[in-house]
Design a protein that fits this description.
By secondary structure, the chain is mainly α. 55% of the residues lie in helices and 7% in strands. It binds tryptophanyl-5'AMP (TYM). The site of tryptophanyl-5'AMP (TYM) has 26 residues, from strand 1, helix 1 and helix 8.
């Protein structure tokens, strides 16, 4: 039996390089060896985006971008979270096992409160519980995610453990997953934290960015006058540029610029030009495929409907078992 994998992406805008290297790259590899459930987390997006007028287009966009990045809807179940009401039911049971104090301490919750103090809703507070339900509904072993989701995974394991202890063993404890190494954090181009959909747009490389836009963003990335002595300590924002280069450039290019840095002869303008061209080479084919797929709405609707059917089967089994264990079967 293949092991089960679950992961989701919120439809809150176009996908970026962080989403690709933190999550989608792993999805594409995992679809060959695992039983995969990948979904668009539309319910989760309502916690911060209550206006749903653009939701439908965003869901189809995220789907098209995932398929363009290499996901094969024949190999995996690709669906919208809201197609599985079983997730909402499991969320309800898990909410009774989640404590207000631990939810309030979650890093992402605290960030969101800071960013948007006028909309601190209960859905935002219980975001990690819904995420646990997404994962546990298929009894997943692995969850490919970026580093920013690590704490949510730890919480999902806690909720699973509490359920198993209270009502009998049902859920495996899901592990965050990245092929062969630590979870990834793709840095933003301005040297302040991670690349993200909502923060500084010019410091985020989207998979739909035009070649011109990619060049413009990379050339604006933060640098300085360069090291004055050989083997100087590398500042964070320069390390970040090297990290991006390692993702899209060949080893020789990275080595050349590393040697230049260590020899205090590096020219950051040249480094950024090389990075920009390799980035264009990486992003352009995904952008073009995504546009073609996005244009075929009938196809995308079919993918969502088939995916929902596959995912539903597994969700129904788990929820029936959950109800039985909780003691809610009366006839
Ligand atoms: P979301 O939509 O913010 O991001 C989707 C995926 O992209 C990863 N990611 C990054 N990885 C590395 N560097 C970055 N700069 C970067 N930015 C984003 C995220 O870690 C994630 O894997 N809560 C989730 C969605 C979700 C989910 C789930 C994930 C809902 N239910 C169940 C897994 C399992 C989120 O907001 O991801």
């Amino acid at each position: 039996m293949k092991e089960i994998v679950v992961s989701g992406i919120r439809p809150t805008g176009h996908l970026h390089l962080g989403n690709y290297f933190g999550a989608m790259r792993n999805y594409v590899r995992m679809q060959e060896e695992y039983n995969c459930y990948f979904f668009v987390a539309d319910w989760h997006s309502l916690t911060t985006h209550p206006d749903t007028s653009e939701l439908r287009d965003s869901v189809l966009g995220v789907l098209a971008e995932n398929i363009a990045a290499g996901l094969d809807p024949e190999k995996v179940a690709l669906y919208a979270q809201s197609a599985l009401p079983e997730i909402a039911e499991l969320y309800l049971y898990l909410n009774m096992l989640a404590y207000k104090g631990e939810l309030e301490k979650t890093t992402t919750f605290k960030d969101k409160v800071r960013q948007n103090p006028d909309n601190v809703n209960a859905g935002l507070l219980t975001y990690p519980v819904l995420m646990a339900a997404d994962i546990l509904i298929h009894r997943a072993a692995y969850v490919p995610v970026g580093k920013d989701q690590e704490q949510h995974l730890e919480m999902a394991r806690n909720f699973a453990q509490r359920f198993n202890y209270r009502y009998t063993e049902l859920f495996p404890e899901p592990q965050a997953f990245n092929f062969g190494s630590d979870l990834v954090k793709v840095p933003s181009l301005d040297g302040t934290g991670k690349m993200s959909k909502s923060e500084n747009q010019l410091a985020t490389l989207y998979l739909v960015d035009s070649d011109e836009m990619i060049r413009k963003k990379v050339m604006k990335a933060k640098t300085d006058a360069g090291p004055t002595e050989p083997n100087s300590t590398m500042p964070d924002y320069i390390q970040n540029l090297f990290m991006l280069m390692e993702l899209v450039s060949d080893r020789g290019t990275v080595e050349k610029f590393r040697n230049d840095f260590n020899g205090a002869s590096i020219r950051y303008g040249d480094l950024k030009k090389a990075l920009a061209e390799d980035m264009v080479r990486f992003i352009a084919p995904i952008r073009e495929k995504a546009a073609a797929i996005y244009a075929d709405k009938d196809y995308l609707r079919r993918v969502l409907s088939n995916g929902a059917e596959k995912a539903h089967e597994s969700a129904r089994k788990t929820i029936e078992e959950t109800r039985r264990l909780v003691g809610l079967r009366y006839f």
